[in-house]
Amino acid sequence: MATTLSVSVWRGAESGEFRIYEVPRLESQTVLDVVTYIQRNLDPTLAYRFACRVGMCGSCAMTVDGKARWTCRTHVASVAAENRLEIAPLNNLPVIKDLVTDMSRFFDNWARAKGRFHGMRSRKDDFARVMPDSPQRKEVDGAIECIGCGVCYSSCDVVTWNPEYLGPAALNRAWTLLNDVRDTARVARLAAVAGDAGCHACHTHMSCSERCPKHIAPTAGIAGLKRAVVAAALKGEL
Ligand code: SF4
Ligand code: SF4
Ligand code: FES
């Protein structure tokens, strides 16, 4: 193993440039370790975002050698060909500074897709229960694990072409709520995801499902939304 790594890091905002840093290589080093080394030892003005460092918060996502990844769970050894690494902010989102993107549009899309639970009970009622072995609960077994990291959104070509597109994560969220037997906003949610910027804009490229670090398949949920929208339209609900 070579002793140093040559790392190109995006500096600036929408306009900027890659700058190269020489970083010592270490055993079991992650890409987030590399970014942290640069910020602590070579350039304290480098801006980046992280919190948990163990793949739970989703805040450390960046573009590493052209692909969106969680940097805390990406080992340098698995990506650094010939001891070079390129680290950039996530695609499809405005850059605030260096490796930090503005996630507002990503989360606004969750609201546009009616990604908020609407229950039917008051706080005086007993808990509403979801049976773990019910078909609807099993349908979204993987999808409910989304941690909102933005990797899928950043990897989706349709978002690049059409920034109004709700994107895989917001549609995945809508799909989980559509299968939540306690929720009461089914028709409003289907109407929210039915438009030109909704589920029918997905071209099933699968990049989201291939890149999701949680192995969620938003494409499958989006296909389910397409079927549900058509069924609701045929019933005259939309
Ligand atoms: S679906 Fe996967 S890639 Fe997309 S935001 Fe959720 S966890 Fe991240
Ligand atoms: S499957 Fe659909 S949502 Fe996922 S990356 Fe492709 S176009 Fe985007
Ligand atoms: S720092 Fe939390 S997922 Fe990487």
Describe this protein with a few key phrases.
238 residues; alpha+beta; Ubiquitin-like (UB roll); Fumarate Reductase Iron-sulfur Protein, Chain B, domain 2; 2 domains; five-stranded mixed beta sheet; two-stranded antiparallel sheet; 7 strands; 34% helix; binds iron/sulfur cluster
Please give a quick description of this structure.
By secondary structure, this protein is an alpha+beta fold.
Notes on the protein architecture:
- By secondary structure, this protein is α+β, with helices and mostly antiparallel strands.
- The protein folds into 2 domains: 4-101, Beta-grasp domain (Ubiquitin-like (UB roll), Roll); 104-234, Fumarate Reductase Iron-sulfur Protein, Chain B, domain 2.
- The protein has 10 helices and 7 strands.
- The strands form 2 sheets. It has a 5-stranded mixed beta sheet with strand order 2-1-5-3-4.
- Strand 3 and strand 4 form a beta hairpin.
- The radius of gyration is 20 Å and the shape is elongated.
- Bound molecules: iron/sulfur cluster (2 copies) and FE2/S2 (inorganic) cluster.
- One iron/sulfur cluster binds next to helix 5 and helix 7.
- The site of one iron/sulfur cluster has 15 residues, from helix 5 and helix 7.
